[in-house]
């Protein structure tokens, strides 16, 4: 696989040396997305209640352009709800949610948010089992989601190149003509990540991506995410601490809908409150 240098979450690596907000790592983003302050996602004082139960409370979180952020925390901490807010599935009762400097996520539909460049992978793979690996990627690339209309339409050279690149990235080049239903669980997960990548998202949200994977698949996932960081921003929710340790620049610990601690994995692991509510169990 093509080696892409892993940009650390550190404004000092910005080769231009220009003054940016502390979050920026100096990556250019897609045309149309304004990230001039180096922050791709801004969440401020987000509140979400379900029948009086406060799933997110005054949650504030910033993700830098090109950053790979891990979100950890006990069951029920609000990690999935946080992703639901970012993708427009759940509307916050209050708070701010911005993609780049100008896109107000609280006023956009789920489709608009996806089209603006936020891709989400759910835990359970949702590939079309009867279609080949290539056809799944082809379908994901199309904006018209009608299966047969999409498969009949001819791909442009550029679109084909993109699919070829993604097949290499997700290591499914050899399996391109296999029905997706015959892939292993891990390969289906990689295919689903590929289905996000063909849409060229700026921000990828991945909820428990290595659950159920073999050790080798987990290791490849770590490599893949590190290679995507820098050119993409990633938010990864995961309980597997050794996986988190192998990828994370920076970790946010969620507890009862609030960010309890933030820092390197070593820093949050040394935090007394974090040990008490999560790691020490
Ligand atoms: N649609 C909903 N209606 C009512 N309660 C909900 C809803 N969605 C989530 N909750 C509650 O909000 C809290 C946060 O749930 P969430 O799924 O975000 O946790 P999580 O951090 O992803 O947990 P896990 O690690 O188990 O996946 C939980 O107590 C959950 O029961
Ligand atoms: Mg969850």
UniProtKB/TrEMBL annotation:
SUPFAM superfamilies: P-loop containing nucleoside triphosphate hydrolases. Residues 41-281 form the ABC transporter domain. One of its GO terms (molecular function) is ATP binding. It comes from the Bacteria. Transmembrane segments: none annotated. Keywords: ATP-binding, Nucleotide-binding, Transport. PANTHER family: CONSERVED COMPONENT OF ABC TRANSPORTER FOR NATURAL AMINO ACIDS-RELATED, HIGH-AFFINITY BRANCHED-CHAIN AMINO ACID TRANSPORT ATP-BINDING PROTEIN. This is Urea ABC transporter ATP-binding protein UrtD. It comes from Pseudomonas schmalbachii. The lineage of its organism: Bacteria, Pseudomonadati, Pseudomonadota, Gammaproteobacteria, Pseudomonadales. The gene is urtD.
